[in-house]
Amino acid sequence: MNTQVMTAETEETILANIQEPYKRASLAYKSTPSVVQVGNIQIGDGHFAMIGGPCSIEGLEKLDEVASAVKDAGANMLRGGAFKPRTSPYSFQGLGQEGLDMLSAVGKKYDLPVVTEVMAVDQVDLFDGIDMYQVGARNMQNFDLLKAIGQTRKPVLLKRGMAASIEDLLMAAEYILAHGNPNVILCERGIRTYETSTRNTLDLSAIPVLRSKTHLPIVVDPSHAVGKREWVESMAMAAVAAGADGLIIEIHQNPDEAWSDGRQSLYLDEYKALTKKVQALHTFLADLD
């Protein structure tokens, strides 16, 4: 359904006839895969996003080194945390506005669109130099934040909450869509189960299930799912095989000294090797179609 040419009356009729509680996110509303434009790249319907960067922005020089490695690896988007939702109030909380400015500048230098997490309604207007908002797992049902982001047209990477069902995720996306922003990308990042060997449990089945329910692109975060760098590659490749539209992976030049999430961050050379494997697998699977 082309929402650009819908009248309000026509759309109201269409929405009323959709049985799913998530209406604009459903395939009944739009039967073809959506493609979201983020800076100079597209995500969805065969357009693959390889996103890399540090958990936390730690300074301009370090971020520049990582961004250079992301570009050299052949990836096409940069991530970095400026505002950090930490489990402990005593952990590093991020560089804030200074970090946003660094991320924006480095992204422009290397021609890489950038994504970073927004945590509160009063931060939304601070992200002018950022190409895509990230709504983290802990804020997936922060409805005031979802409404505020919905009133912008900026792309949004919406992460699934740790205890959220697939329908919960789609209903969160619906808040953004219903408030006028069609540029939503879903992110599976692992859910909380009884298993303690990994940080979370990556729900790879969410990819085909979401495909059967929604037109929105799907990105996978294997870093937060497994919590240990030695398992990131296998889950990243599995996500591509399952049909993900992109990967968001944490990397660092010296993970042992990272200010946050060093244990799950890949070394820069590991990320480059993984990017080549991911691109080869994605191309192979596309050729099968």
UniProtKB/TrEMBL annotation:
GO MF assignments: aldehyde-lyase activity; transferase activity
GO process annotations (BP): aromatic amino acid family biosynthetic process
Gene3D superfamilies reported for this sequence: Aldolase class I
Domain annotation DAHP synthetase I/KDSA: ranges: 40-282
Pfam families: DAHP_synth_1 (PF00793)
Transferase recorded as keyword: yes
Top-level division of the source organism's lineage: Bacteria
Keywords: Transferase
UniProt-recorded name of the protein: 3-deoxy-7-phosphoheptulonate synthase
Annotated source species: Aerococcus viridans
Record lineage: Bacteria, Bacillati, Bacillota, Bacilli, Lactobacillales
